[in-house]
Write a structure and sequence with these properties.
There is one protein chain. The chain is an alpha+beta fold and about 200 residues long. The protein has one domain: Glutaredoxin. Helices cover about 55% and strands about 10% of the residues. The chain is built from 9 helices and 4 strands; from the N terminus they run ααααβαβαββααα. The protein has helices at about 5-15, 15-30, 40-60, 65-70, 90-100, 120, 155-165, 170-185, 190-200, and strands spanning about 75-85, 105-115, 135-140, 145-150. It has a 4-stranded mixed β-sheet, sandwiched between helices. Helix 7 packs antiparallel against helix 8. The relative contact order is 0.15.
């Protein structure tokens, strides 16, 4: 089956970044998160992620070179993001993706939840895993894939790889180490990666 056939219905039911934030807030008010795992850990991380996204919305600035590249896009496209509210990498990166999309009215960022769209997720596995967030940029007219990105910048992936090498598997420790790396990076790596992607198109 062609990817476009599976992507079309997903895009039709996808939600905006604003609606994604609203959904997360409503679920938290009900003591819930997205997806089937409703554990205390996932609720805790969803709460942290919600406030982190709100903070990044206010504090992150895109660099001028990246803005110029985004503003130069001339064809309407959809940036379909696969995410979940409990995912720390999504909380760190989806607000940046939204800021990028907001630079050009031809870019429409839409979000789908991974566990409600496993057929789409399984088209975009990372080393066989359902890692998120995952961005699929598509031409609106043809549904042709322009590029993909995710689940995290390479510099953050290096930290994850190091944790695996050291056999560190405790969730709280991993989350803390990854969070420190993101704080130090200040969104610069994802911005540089998108500059490279857009320059190469």
């Amino acid at each position: 089956m062609e990817k476009s056939i599976q992507l079309k219905p997903a895009i039709q039911k996808a939600i905006s970044y604003k609606d994604y934030l609203n959904l997360t807030e409503v679920l938290l008010s009900e003591g819930k998160t997205t997806g089937p795992n409703q554990s205390e850990d996932y609720l805790h991380y969803t709460n942290l992620n919600f406030h982190r996204m709100k903070r990044l919305d206010k504090t992150v600035e895109l660099n001028e070179d990246l803005k110029s590249l985004l503003q130069a896009i001339e064809k309407p496209q959809t940036w379909l993001v696969i995410s979940e509210a409990w995912c720390g990498d999504a909380a760190q990166n989806v607000p940046i993706l939204q800021k990028m999309a907001a630079q050009n009215q031809l870019i429409d960022l839409k979000i789908i939840l991974r566990d409600e769209n496993l057929d789409v997720m399984d088209l975009y596995l990372t080393k066989g895993g359902r890692s998120i967030p995952k961005l699929i940029a598509l031409e609106n007219e043809t549904f042709n894939e322009i590029f993909t990105w995710g689940p995290r910048p390479a510099v953050i992936q290096e930290v994850m790889n190091q944790l695996k090498e050291e056999n560190i598997t405790e969730l709280s420790v991993m989350v803390e180490k990854i969070q420190i790396a993101y704080n130090y990076d200040k969104s610069q790596s994802i911005q540089e990666e998108f500059k490279a992607i857009l320059t190469s198109l």
